[in-house]
Amino acid sequence: MLLGNYRFPGRYGPEWGSGGIFGLRYHDGVLYYTLAFEAEAHFIDLKGGDERVYDFTLVGPAPTSGGDTYNAVETVDEFIYFGGWVHAPAVYRERRILFNNKYSHVHAYDTSEGTVKLLWRDSIHHETDWAGEVSDLIYDPYNDRLLLAREDGHANLGVYALDRRTGRAEALLHEPSPKGTRVHDSVFFGVGNNFTGGLRGIKALDLISGRWESFRVAESADGRPYIRPELGAMASAYNRAFAFVRGGIIAGNPLMGEEFTFFRLLDFYTFYAPFRVNAINVGGGILTAFNAHHDAVYRPGSDGMDWWTTNTVVGPSVLLYVAPPMVKIVGALGARVTSIEKMDGKLLVATNSAPNTGATEATPFDTGNRDIVVLDEKILQERPPSVSFSLPLSLPSAAKNLGAGTFGGIPLDGHREPRMVLHLHRDNLLTVYEYDLSLPPGESVAETFEVRAGRNVIDLSAFSGIVSFELKKPDFKGRARIELR
After folding, report:
1. I need a labelling partner for 170 at 20 to 30 A (CA). Which of 49, 113, 272, 444 fits?
2. Name one Pfam family in it (predicted).
């Protein structure tokens, strides 16, 4: 396999911080991806070696910026459908982007002819607000249409059905939805606003009857409360829907009699999350990533989001392979992973060194260094890499004020010498909860340890599956380091 361009330093593309490489999809001999914020859709013919680059000027005049930041891509027959949003033309003024020319879009690329067609676009032409971006595309094989998930925006949010021949769009659900996944003969959609609390519930659309059903957000496998489950990616396997959220995985299928359950996973009460990345099926399981630094406030006090929450980096971004009851770390990377694809026995992993920013933190160019890393599929079967997580205990302690405080959810599978090092400023009690990703879920087991002021080393090799932690008393000056070797 030979890729031409696979490293992209920041170039002209007015937006907030950094975009990334999104929508990686290999189909019919063509590798597609969109480079954001430069608004470049790349189509590489791996048979002939040709590369076509499209600049989104079918939407509006140049200079364009944006493209896609959620991996909205689907393939049907000879077509690659790609969606998202784009400024056409982009207007940058005094650290701000004006949104008058911001469009949501869906395009079709014909792999047999090598041509791009604009299928649909939508804009409210407002200076500060915008129409809901297309954050997911799902093919409905029963009705031969595309389902669009739209959550990021101010108007026209929800789930839309798009006729892939005429380009006519029809609203099916008016509640904001960032992602969905098809399971059996239904499509499950997460419902909620990602920057104001996260997932509120899950709705299922019966593709045959057209009826909707609603399901509540899940209880936790470790029996402890959780907060802010922002939805990053969804996938299906085992006739279940898997929603990857900040703090864990929500999995299940009420349509076959199994309630949704929240499995705490890599929950540090920061913005460490499976956000702005996709999830793919590999080997019958699911491969996705939890990202260390995907969205952030650049200057303290410049946005409603908390600077410390978004900029506290507790560990590397990790690739996770989910094959219940096992969850295994199979890769450790930098600030964030933006897209994942499988091709010819290899895994293509798009990465970025910088996050999105917000509010008045726009720049006239992309601020990140983006590249495509090629890994061998055998990493799914090998021992996981050594990984460490380090976090101030003030974060989970402060979460107690919001009704939570249990942290961690560390997958131990494949690690021979896992341990936790606690630096405490007071004597305390530490409870360790042990569980796994069993479907249907089993009960967790808890064990409590006395820990002392100073340095404590907790050997985790006696535990299996996934472990989460809770201190009985807050320790705002303490620190925890979790080492997986």
Report:
1. 113
2. DUF2139
Count of C-beta atoms within a 10 Å radius of residue 144: 11
Whether the Cβ atoms of residue 407 and residue 479 lie closer than 8 Å to each other: no
Neighbours of 39 (CB within 10 A): 30
DSSP 3-state of 475: coil
pLDDT per position as a tens digit, 19-50 = 999 999 999 999 999 999 999 999 999 888 89
User: Which CATH superfamily is 7-380 part of?
Assistant: YVTN repeat-like/Quinoprotein amine dehydrogenase (2.130.10.10)
The CA–CA distances, whole Å, from 293 to 143, 246, 271, 272, 315 equal 39, 12, 7, 7, 10
Long-range Cβ contact pairs of 298-306 (< 8 A, separation 24 or more): 298/17, 298/357, 298/361, 299/361, 302/358, 302/359, 302/360, 302/361, 303/358, 303/359, 303/361, 305/195, 305/358
**Stretch 328-357: mean pLDDT:** 97
User: CATH 2.60.120 occupies which residues in the chain?
Assistant: 387-484
Question: pLDDT per residue over 367-399, tens digit each?
Answer: 999 999 999 999 999 999 999 999 999 999 989
Quote the pTM value.
0.97
Cis bond before residue 384 (omega within 30° of 0): no
Mean of pLDDT over the chain: 95
Q: Assess contact for 59 and 124: CB atoms under 8 A.
A: no
In degrees, rounded to 5, the angle at the alpha carbon of residue 95 between the alpha carbons of residues 89 and 97 is 30
